[in-house]
Specification:
single chain; about 190 residues; alpha/beta; 6 helices
């Protein structure tokens, strides 16, 4: 499963996200209540996707995203802003800051899940491209080193593919939402 890191200081919103994603065997949700813990977890948990509240204690989501982008280990992880700040200026600021999407509270659950699925699909496409590239490279190596050393090349290609599966992808075109719910199911705003 792909790891999703949710950084949110409101325990009710964290519980809601856990409930929303618990039925998704393709996702593993990890949470952090503080941005400093979230930064550490982004480095150690290698999440495929970040969900960041904007109004966090001690450091807002924009500053957290800036720090994540400065770190080569976390720079390419797609991040989704989740905020009660829902004006057009807030949404534009989030996009300009580099968030892959900006979702507003109360959360439109359908849009949240569509956004996660769209970003997950981008990761899956990147992995397939990486695997295809590795298979092509294996064919080239097999021809270069001969059949008897092909197993070593296969092991190297497999290691490469496993690294690609863990590597995040930056996302630029995902569903973006303002407030409002098409399904009627929403999450309560925290602030």
């Amino acid at each position: 499963p792909r790891t999703v890191l949710y950084v949110e200081d409101n325990p009710i919103n964290t519980l809601l996200m856990e409930a929303l994603l618990e039925g998704r065997p393709d996702l593993r949700l990890v949470t952090a209540a503080l941005p400093t813990l979230g930064l550490d977890m982004a480095r150690t948990q290698s999440p495929a996707l970040l969900l960041l509240d904007i109004q966090l204690p001690g450091m807002n989501g924009y500053e957290m995203l800036r720090r994540l982008r400065e770190d080569p280990a976390t720079a390419a992880i797609p991040a989704v802003a989740i905020s009660a700040n829902a004006t057009a200026d807030d949404i534009a600021r989030g996009r300009d800051a580099g968030f892959a999407a900006y979702l507003t509270k109360p959360l439109d659950i359908d849009v949240l899940l569509q956004t996660i699925d769209a970003l997950k699909a981008k990761l899956d496409v990147a992995l397939n491209v990486e695997i295809g590239t590795s298979v092509n490279a294996l064919d080239i190596v097999r021809r270069a080193v001969g059949k008897d050393r092909a197993h070593e090349a296969l092991a190297a290609a497999t290691k490469c593919c496993h690294s690609a599966a863990a590597a995040p992808l930056s996302a630029s075109s995902t569903p973006r939402a303002a407030s409002g719910s098409r399904s009627g199911a929403t999450a309560a705003p925290s602030r």
